[in-house]
Amino acid sequence: MAADVRLKLERDGVLSVTETITVPEGRTARRSVPLRIAVGDDRDRVFEVRSPAVSGRGSATASPDELVVALEAGTATVTYQVVGAVAKIGDALELRWQPAGGWDTAIDSVEVSVITPDAAKSVNCLAGPPGTNKPCTTADLGDGRGVRATEIGLAAGERVDVAVGLQDGAAPPNARVEEVSWLAAAFALTPATGAGLAALVVLLLGGAVLLWSLRGRDARAVAGDVVPVNVLVTDPSGRVAFASPDGVLPGQVGTVVDEHVDVVDVTATIVDLAVRNYLWVEEVGELDWRFVRRNPADDSLSAYERAVYDALLPPGADAVLLSELRGRRVDLSRVRDALYADVVAKNWFARRPDAERSLWWWVGVALACLGAALTALLVAVRGPALFGLVVAVAGAALALGARWMPARTKRGSALLEHVRGLRGYLHAATPEDIPEGDREMVFSRSLPYAVVLGQTDRWLAAFASARPGLYWYGEAERTGDLGRFARRFPTFLGAVGGMLAQAGHLRSLRD
């Protein structure tokens, strides 16, 4: 590539520039010229470029901060005018401009000519990387015919900087120097910081696409039509029984649906343990209940169910009042950990949802702190602090998005869809749908799922007029009055939920 640059200083101080650039076939070239140059810790020399134009294949644009020239293969002529190139340096007048520099490709040769209104007094031509003081290959006053300079072999990113001493009165000085706030400079939007911000946008969009791909199955499962689920099965003897989809237990249902172990999940598990004859519940006055050991924990219980059972009735205890449990603050951390581990073991989640949230939250917090520290450091050294800000914002976004990071497996998403069907069954089933001899069992086995899916009131109301009796709840077992049970059972659930929430290991809807 070759460049022939002609500079002509007008009497009014405007510098007219004509660049003839030859780009080899099959290549392109781009030049970026900063128009604000630091001349001190808090000062910038500001140039203004007017009327940039290209004759040939390419384009030229100028902003307050930058001149950009982009050329395709061939020979093109770039023209523009510069205001601010003439400065008073002590008692001397000087014209200064970079006729070449900021190109993204090497230049084989640069030829520069400078015409001034009066004969130039001196010339100083520097070439090489910014900040170096290497003289150009040649530079002279041209015996009164104008300044001429040549540089052979300019690498990509290197510049040619020409300073010409002028006669007094040759042109009015028009150099503009601005005071710059160091804080504003640190957060100034430059091509480099702009690229950093663009990278942040790409990162955030990439994260959104990743989340969309991970959560897409769940969104489709929630947004689609409710698929009927057959939870009533008939055994060979003709008896009708309740069977949950994929064998999911009440506590597991809640954790799969909202990715948290909640108070209601454990409350439903306690009811399920009673329904399955591990516990017996009896009323003690109006506001207390007793849990009685009916059968010991066996291999039929999952690890989290055994943890719930042991939390209520530790070894050696055959009965306990709910008020006593409230007073001793039951440790439910084992229950929480076992239930999270259980949904992973069942392949509904690839990793524990709480661990996944925690991991990404801490990564986000660490990144945000790193970004904040980097921002402070760059501000202190007057560097591009926007880079640190980009890192901090990315970290904050990651920390805020951590709650959405746990993703169900394909099997977990399928179960989520089936749970919607289970909720539909609980919302629509009536006693008449079930043979009279099987109503007590179906009502009881379905009740824990109604508790965890928010269908308790509807399920109780639907069966309030029936009289199947209950084998696991003392007062209902004696009276067979489901109407009274329907009035008392929500109070029981509230009391159990309050006791569990008091333990502080589980998320409560009241939090």
Automatic annotation (TrEMBL):
Membrane spanning residue stretches: 182-212, 359-379, 385-405
Domain of life according to the entry: Bacteria
Ranges for domain DUF2207: 3-164
A Pfam short name: DUF2207_C
Organism in which the protein naturally occurs: Saccharothrix coeruleofusca
Keywords, sorted A to Z: Membrane, Transmembrane, Transmembrane helix
Any coiled-coil regions, as ranges: none
Protein name: Uncharacterized protein
Domain spans labelled Predicted membrane protein YciQ-like C-terminal: 243-463
